[in-house]
Specification:
By secondary structure, the protein is mainly β. The protein is about 5% helix and about 45% strand.
């Protein structure tokens, strides 16, 4: 009897831990970073860490720092992390509706080398977003006049140029997108080039009165008074949630209102679940933009990935992108050895393969495979260059400029019952040879709803598909603007 009682007791989950007990105080502007770090350190395997309902602020000054290379992101080491889960197993963070407010460029959640991790019930936002917006109140052949809420989107004008600011940064817009407040999407047929109606980059900027900003430049377009311009002045350097070298990670009931880069980025991870995740502006906030870039980005993952009942809106890039990474061959060093490099600047520092992985030799022009092989060893040379040793001879006809594709790190992918609302770019990008199921979704993206493409020449995003089922989806007013690779709905 005693043995059975002890065995039963050993299977019980540890008592939940509250971040409040470690010094986090909701609804104050004090930095909660250190209190949450203490709570996580005290949580044993199998524990739930609770964030009682309320608002918690996080500043990058006391955050964790790690040198990390994020796929499809700018190199900006060290990265700043607010909530770090590293080398952990069987841990659950329960938000209970908590709103987490971040300041400056920072990764809200990083899950590194961990397994069986769950995030549930959080709203993620920035007090000062890393983009800005203004309403068009006048437009003519001589330029555009904007109304800007200077409290929400602080700015200064210096030497006739407009800079948006925060307490630690000052940035000039490098692009604008025009949004229609009725559709909450990119204005019809404006896309990337039509928002401003001309070359605005040398515009002379003035402020006729506080909160009213005039941009003078030759304007040949037809702007609509009442539309909004979203100013893009941030960098793609910190994701909303970063998952690396981890297994069995689940995100549920999460709302990302803004991010400092990709929304959720997972790389070299397997068996991931995203259920009832929103990357979208908060209703009633007046904000038309959410994510700085993609919503969910899956690079070089494997196992099973499920996206269920999620919603995406107001993104400045694609809601979901699933892909691997091709690497061009720069030198043939022997019968079983090649030198390769990560050719895109946002893939520097990534890991191409592990010993035992299966890779495909790709013809650069046709993207057809010249054969496959097992990897024996990968020898790093620099951030972008490495050598690969194979268990066997490389195929005849392989030439410098051809590419390698890792077939091992390629997941099966299911997306269902999700809403791909108005965004700047396309809807769903799928480049994986795993089994793909796309069902019961609603697509309203301004670009193509679904893009299936391979590439070994520009973005170097790999993954020739083999088994894709698309069924019972609704395609609603897609392709209202054209972008790269938007050839059909």
């Amino acid at each position: 009897m005693l043995l059975s009682i002890l065995m039963a007791a050993s299977t019980l989950s540890p008592k939940p831990i509250s971040v409040v007990d470690f010094g986090a105080v909701p609804n104050l502007r004090e930095d909660a970073t250190e209190a949450v770090t203490r709570a996580l350190a005290a949580a044993p395997s199998g524990a739930t860490v609770l964030f009682p309902r309320g608002e918690y602020h996080f500043y990058r000054e006391k955050g964790h720092r790690r040198n990390l290379y994020l796929s499809n992101s700018d190199v900006a080491n060290p990265r700043h992390i607010a909530i770090l889960i590293e080398g952990r197993s069987r841990l659950r963070l329960q938000g209970q509706g908590a709103r987490l407010v971040f300041h400056d460029r920072i990764i809200p959640f990083a899950i590194l080398a961990s397994r069986n991790i769950a995030l549930d019930g959080f709203e993620v936002d920035w007090e000062r977003p890393l983009m800005s917006q203004g309403r068009i109140v006048a437009a003519d052949a001589g330029g555009i006049t904007l109304e800007i809420d200077a409290e929400r989107y602080p700015y200064v004008i210096e030497d006739g140029r407009l800079f948006f600011t925060d307490r630690t940064w000052k940035r000039e817009p490098w692009d604008y997108m025009r949004f229609d407040p009725e559709t909450r999407g990119v204005a019809y047929r404006t896309g990337d080039a039509g928002a401003m109606g001309g070359d605005w980059r040398d515009a002379k900027v003035s402020e006729p009165q506080p909160g009213i900003v005039r941009l003078d430049y030759p304007n040949s377009g037809r702007q609509t008074v009442g539309h909004f311009l979203v100013a893009r002045h941030g960098t793609r350097d910190h994701g909303g949630t970063f998952i690396q070298d981890s297994q069995k990670v689940a995100l549920s009931n999460m709302a990302y209102r803004h991010t400092s880069g990709l929304g959720i980025l997972a790389q070299y991870s397997q068996d991931l679940t995203f259920r009832k995740v929103e990357v979208a502006p908060k209703e009633g906030s007046g904000r038309l933009f959410a994510g700085h870039d993609d919503g969910i980005h899956l690079s070089n993952c494997k196992g099973k990935v499920l996206v269920d009942q999620c919603r995406f809106e107001g993104l400045m890039d694609d809601p979901i992108n699933v892909h691997g990474t091709t690497v061009p061959i720069t030198a043939i060093l022997g019968a079983d050895r090649l030198r390769c490099r990560f050719s895109h600047g946002q893939s520097l520092g990534l890991r191409f393969a592990d010993p035992g992985d299966t890779v495909s030799y790709l013809d650069r022009e046709t993207l057809l495979s010249r054969g496959t092989a097992k990897v024996l060893e990968v020898v790093p040379i620099s951030e972008g260059e490495f050598e690969v040793v194979f268990a066997g001879r490389i195929p005849e006809g392989l030439v410098v400029g051809d590419a390698l594709e890792n077939l091992t790190w390629a997941p099966s992918f299911t997306v269902r019952r999700s809403v791909f609302g108005p965004v700047r770019a396309r809807g769903l990008l799928v480049s994986t040879p795993g089994k793909v199921l796309i069902e019961d979704n609603h697509f309203r993206s301004s670009g193509s709803a679904i893009l299936i493409a391979g590439d070994a020449n520009q973005w170097y995003e790999s993954g020739a598909v083999k088994d894709v089922t698309i069924r019972r989806n609704r395609f609603d007013n897609c392709l209202t603007s054209t972008y790269q690779f938007c050839e059909a709905v």
